[in-house]
Amino acid sequence: MKKYLILLVVLLLVFLQGCSSQTSGTTQSNINKTLVIGIESEADVLDPDRAGGWVTYRINRQIHEGLLTEDLSAASKSQSVPPLKPSLATSWDVSKDGLHYTFHLRKNVKFQDGTPFNAQAVEFNFRRLIDKNFKYYDQRSASNLTNTVSDIKSMKLIDDNTIEFTMKKPFSAFLRMLAGSSQVAMISPTALKKYGNNGYSEHPVGTGPFEFQERVKGEKIVLVRNPNYWGKEPKLQRVIFVPLSDDSARVAALESGQVDMIAVPPPDAIKSLKEKGFNIEYGAPPHVWFLSPNFNNPYMKNLKVRQAIAMAIDRKGMAKELLKNTVTPAYSAQSPANDAYDPSFVDYPYDPKKAKQLLAEAGYPNGFTTTFETSVDGSGQLIPVPMAEWIQQDLAKIGIKVKLQTYEWISYLGKWSDMSSSVGFNQMSWGMSTPYYLYNIAYSTSGANAGKYSNPAFDKVVNEAMTATNTETATEDWKKANELIAKDAAIIPIVSDKAPYAMANYVKGFVVPNEEWYDLTNVYIKKSN
Q: Per DSSP, what are the bridge partners of residue 281?
């Protein structure tokens, strides 16, 4: 029944949208400049500093911008790691000791409410995250972005268009972090003062190519073209994001023309969609769908148990048979599409016989029962429940009985990094185009270290990588860190997503870069009469 209710909402939404955007007697190619995207879950808050998950970031980044961004204009196959490029900062200087970053800001830029963008606005945004004495300091935002801003010691306004950051210690990933999903996106100081930290997400105001118009939770988020955008004018007039967590409802909405494109088409539907004339575009983003063994769980504290789990899961079979080659099997905690990723690295081969032997050596010849937590939907989560069931069946073959505990995505995000000791492991899909990603998921004090893994040797090499001022040295250190995670089976990678999108053939200009998000400024609709 839920599926049909969702579909009914979409039908009504698109009918109303169509009524408002079409004029009798005029060709759609000339007037229909609205793109409707079916997304895989409800979005989080539209406050870029507070939000979590790629689904929401893909929306927030159309409204908000950071000092740097990534060049997303090239398709995945032609560019392994998207290069950094200027955004609200036109250039930057980094001192040789890695302690001082000077950003030269773009002039004559305004927020969508008319507030000038300048060095004072940059300072305002960062003080929200690092200055507990600031009137608009926000603990929730500060916690969310701590891995980006925690090494900032102070800021100095050089002039209206220049600002210098001084770091507590060198931070090799700082620029890349400012460009990705953990960026400090600039929000209008005027809007924040007006609506407050808790009210801002209902009235988001950035400098981006699209402005926020409306949100009806569970139904749609509507953005419209920013008429005063400083950069290249978007070709679309409106973008509507429609949450459709049910796979079949998402496909049905696309096939009936109720949406123009969908994220994460279910693997079983891709062949049929192709035969019906829909385009399927793939990428190779920095994505790993992985398990986090819970180091507070008695079973998971045993290295041989963790290794047995890694060797018992047929990752190649899951990629081919369950996910229909829409993913690649993953054998490294390090995500693809960053400079420290080694595609030839294999942590543990599939070997259920050896896995059973390891389990016996660990003291569990007859196996045990444990709990596996997962979401039912969400950003990059693919088809989490069928994947969890595949893992459940594989582990049963060596004697480990798995009880699945599932949650809706936003609820799952809120509890993911806080497993109780009764839970054996949970899962997440993540990755970054900087190897600093390993710090996030496995450093002993990182809030995103869901399994509470702790290894002083790992922390030491990560510290060396983070403070290195030489890129080659940092890359080698990150590779060593990845080897330690594999040795400890602290993260059990399962698959890496190819990030498929399915779209009608009249959607033009959409590029899937090697990232988890995309640029909509060059996308347009071109329909024949």
A: 501
Helix (H, G, I), strand (E, B) or coil at 428: strand
Edge-first strand order for the sheet with 152-159 is 89-94, 100-105, 162-167, 152-159
Whole-angstrom Cα distance, residue 479 to residue 399? Answer: 33
- The 8-class DSSP code of residue 20 comes to H
CA distances to 312, 351, 524 from 400, in Å: 10, 15, 51
* Strands 327-329 and 423-430, sheet pairing: unpaired
Out of 28-42, 285-299, 315-329, 336-350, pick the least confident: 28-42
Instruction: Give the Cα-Cα-Cα angle 329, 442, 362 (nearest 5 degrees).
Output: 75
CA atoms of 517 and 452, how far apart (whole Å): 29
The pair of structure tokens assigned to 138 is 């926000």
Whole-model pTM?
0.85
pLDDT tens column, 2-12: 444 444 444 44
CB 210 within 8 A of CB 223: yes
pLDDT at 12: 45
Question: Of the candidates 223, 298, 256, 296, which has an alpha carbon nearest to the alpha carbon of residue 60?
Answer: 223
137 and 178 in contact (C-beta within 8 Å)?
Answer: no
> How far apart are alpha carbons 515 and 338 in whole angstroms?
10
Q: What is the pLDDT of residues 48-105, one digit of tens each?
A: 999 988 899 999 999 999 999 999 998 887 888 899 999 999 999 999 999 999 999 9
Tally of CB atoms within 10 A around 379: 26
